[in-house]
């Protein structure tokens, strides 16, 4: 089988859990925000590998997801005996998420972390609801949902659009809000410019809370906080800390507005070009690496919070009453189905699919 080559031009879940489920020069980059020198290494000697999948993430390699992909490199090397290799490009080295997803539609051998909100923008509107504010009350509801018939149907629709989900069992984290001015309640968000990823679901999901959402690539957030272009950002603690955003924004409210499970997505065209063994090695690897990631996340989340506190961040832990106020403020989001192009009764369908 010929070696598959990624040509990057101008871009600067098993079955669904397991089956809803090349080559470039290594780049060494020293990143100011993480303070570590990162060399992109394959999971095997890519000169001998028949297949190379380039995993591009906006996160630093030190975050739980970065460690999860390092585990994936080990696993794929073992499973394929070096036939398949994974290259890891952290810190947005290959560009922003939307550009990378666009490249997948051209058949390129790149993989990213992405979520339902992005898939809504790529032709599967119902997928967007999984990123709605305060949809999930527990992680167990997330895992029930991704095993449901409804979720498998969404994965199949996405594949028809050209995008293949390799795994959906990765915890990205509970998303909290970090700001340059104190936020003690949902009312305090009124008018604040809060960075969100550049997609409609997450933008409107934060707008309904009273904030003024600002779509922006993660790599641009540090400078935007420095220049006061934005007043804050939302993300899991590992990402907020990993990008050193707390150096500028010193107020954190643990609102947990989204329980963010994430998916690994690649080109359906590229995936279909692989042999059955190669496909199985990849999907099995990504699911197993997801389990590893989740273990790392569970321990790291508490450590990140302690670090942020020790480095001068004021942390607000909302009371149940305060969280209920957030949920009430978010409720109108689920009445906007027509705006998002959702199927009739989608909210009820999803709540039932998650075991409620």
From TrEMBL:
<dbReference type="InterPro" id="IPR018389">
    <property type="entry name" value="DctP_fam"/>
</dbReference>
<protein>
    <submittedName>
        <fullName>C4-dicarboxylate ABC transporter substrate-binding protein</fullName>
    </submittedName>
</protein>
<dbReference type="InterPro" id="IPR004682">
    <property type="entry name" value="TRAP_DctP"/>
</dbReference>
<comment type="similarity">
    <text>Belongs to the bacterial solute-binding protein 7 family.</text>
</comment>
<dbReference type="Pfam" id="PF03480">
    <property type="entry name" value="DctP"/>
</dbReference>
<keyword id="KW-0813">Transport</keyword>
<dbReference type="InterPro" id="IPR038404">
    <property type="entry name" value="TRAP_DctP_sf"/>
</dbReference>
<keyword id="KW-0732">Signal</keyword>
<dbReference type="GO" id="GO:0055085">
    <property type="term" value="P:transmembrane transport"/>
</dbReference>
<dbReference type="GO" id="GO:0030288">
    <property type="term" value="C:outer membrane-bounded periplasmic space"/>
</dbReference>
<feature type="signal peptide">
    <location>
        <begin position="1"/>
        <end position="21"/>
    </location>
</feature>
<feature type="region of interest" description="Disordered">
    <location>
        <begin position="26"/>
        <end position="46"/>
    </location>
</feature>
